[in-house]
Amino acid sequence: MHDKPDEPVGRLIEEFLTARATRKPSPHTLAAYRRDLATVASLVAADGGTTPLPLDQLPVSALSPRVMRAAFARFATPRAAASVHRAWSTWNSFFTFLVAEGVVPGNPMPAVGRPRTPLPQPKPLRGEDTPEELLAAVAREDGRQRDPWPERDLAVLALALCAGLRLSELLALRVASVAGRPGERRVDVAGKGGRPRTVPIEAGVDRVLADYLDSRRRRFGSRSVRPDSPLLVDRRGEPLRRGGLQYLVESCYRRAGIGDRVPRGARLHALRHTFATRLAEDGASAAEIMRLLGHASLASSQTYIEVTAGQQRAAVHANRTNRAVAALVDGPAGGGG
């Protein structure tokens, strides 16, 4: 137990982030934790003044329910509900950590209101045949590229479109992550929040991955495909990083000429959403989608089914034959009979 109730908030934030780092969150997630904690703490430290107290001088005892409510009210004014909800969750985790460490006697966050945020809507690629067009375009060598590697690019797209992997999950894959006997091949995924899952892959995807690894052997030698090696590498044989993977997918969109069919703000994630949406279209249940995508809750998976049902209803409504039937029933005056 700590016996210093007025430890500085700045130091405690660093302790919390160090503890969180052992869970292997993405650098993006860790940066968001730091930003949310520092921004709200700075509002507390300012306390209406123009020169805020440095966080390494702000005592943790200052973080009372009343003070936190006021700070979150100021934090929420210029921000979207989703941003406020995320910051509330970060601070709730921070105080849970402090209570467990014996630094504070209780968590004030239940006394701080938080907005309800609707579940994000799926953003798949637009156009019924867009995924097939994308794969076909990327499979062809493009003479305009300095060092074309269609086998690697196709492997990335196949894993995102046919296994629904997140960006961080793609980067975490090892060569040995693709496993199983012929006919029972799978990808072992280190999922979000430390939740591992297994995604079955069909023979076509397995062949794409095998072709990619063969091409990698030719480029960099057999040592480059040891079981513990990163599965996805750049053109120098180095592990792909976040920015490199994002750029790779963007370049695939450009080569296929489908940039206008990619939803704003969902560049790589649109591939995962396309996977989930097609699962729903083909009759998968919310529970099946949840397991395959590694969702933490069934509600996230249910959105794909609801959106798909809505799209099906809209398609039926737009059908010209249905409109013709409606015209016959309604009659010229708009009434039946």
UniProtKB/TrEMBL annotation:
Boundaries of every Core-binding (CB) domain copy: 7-99
Coiled coil (UniProt feature): none
Stretches assigned to the Tyr recombinase domain: 120-318
Entry keyword annotation includes rRNA processing: no
Cited Pfam families: Phage_int_SAM_1, Phage_integrase
GO molecular function, one term: DNA binding
GO biological process, any: DNA recombination
InterPro entries in alphabetical order: CB, DNA_brk_join_enz, Integrase-like_cat_sf, Integrase_catalytic, Integrase_recombinase_N, Integrase_SAM-like_N, Tyrosine_recombinase_XerCD
UniProt keyword terms in alphabetical order: DNA integration, DNA recombination, DNA-binding
PROSITE patterns per UniProt: CB, TYR_RECOMBINASE
CDD domains in alphabetical order: DNA_BRE_C
Record family assignment: Belongs to the 'phage' integrase family.
Protein name per UniProt: Site-specific recombinase XerD
Organism whose genome encodes this protein: Micromonospora chersina
